Amino acid sequence: MSLRGVRGATVADANTADAILEATRELLLAILAANPTLQPEDVASVTFTLTVDLDAVYPAQAARELNWTQVPLMCAQEIPVPDGINRCIRVMLLWNTDLSQSEIQHVYLKEAVRLRPDLSFGRNDPLSDQGGC
């Protein structure tokens, strides 16, 4: 079994606890849908980052609300890059799995698709709003 990274990102509608938690839940559920064998008990850890304009709540709370109670979670602030995406939530999930790296599906939603359009799962998936890339 190997440790694999699953990446993802999305954008919150506003700097409110509800908007951040909703966007984070949507992202985590999309990652689970894209990687159907992923189970929380196989997750080694999850790191969330937020852009400096998001500080109303820790996004890890959304994972706890999804019953990821035994998964180690960490939140941090993203570096402020000029012309970066505003209200962006990113995740790096470390998963113990037998899948190869090429079988891992990364998920980028809403405006965050422009971060890595080459890695985005479900380019025609209704969970993914591609916007103008």
Detailed description of the structure:
This protein has a 5-stranded mixed sheet with strand order 3-2-4-1-5, with helices on one face. The protein is of the alpha/beta class and 133 residues long. The chain has one domain: RutC-like (60s Ribosomal Protein L30, Chain: A), CATH 3.30.1330. Helix content is 18%, strand content 26%.
Q: Layout of helices and strands, plus pairs?
A:
Blueprint: E1 2-11, H1 17-34, E2 43-50, H2 60-65, E3 73-77, E4 88-97, E5 107-108
Parallel strand pairs: 1-5, 2-3
Antiparallel strand pairs: 1-4, 2-4
Would you kindly provide a brief summary of this structure?
This protein is an alpha/beta fold. It contains 2 helices and 5 strands.
Determine the strand fraction and express it as a percent band. Answer: 25-35%
Give the rounded overall mean pLDDT.
89
CATH architecture: 2-Layer Sandwich
N-C termini distance? 36 Å
- SS field, number of helical segments: 2
Classification by helices and strands: alpha/beta
H/E series, N to C? EHEHEEE
CATH topology: 60s Ribosomal Protein L30, Chain: A
User: How many structural domains?
Assistant: 1
* Radius of gyration computed on alpha carbons: 14 Å
Biggest sheet strand order reads: 3-2-4-1-5
Helix percentage: 10-25%
Class, according to the CATH hierarchy?
Alpha Beta
Q: Uncertain spans, ≥5 residues at pLDDT below 50?
A: 122-133
Number of extended strands: 5
Largest sheet: 5 strands, mixed
Large-scale geometry: globular
CATH superfamily: RutC-like
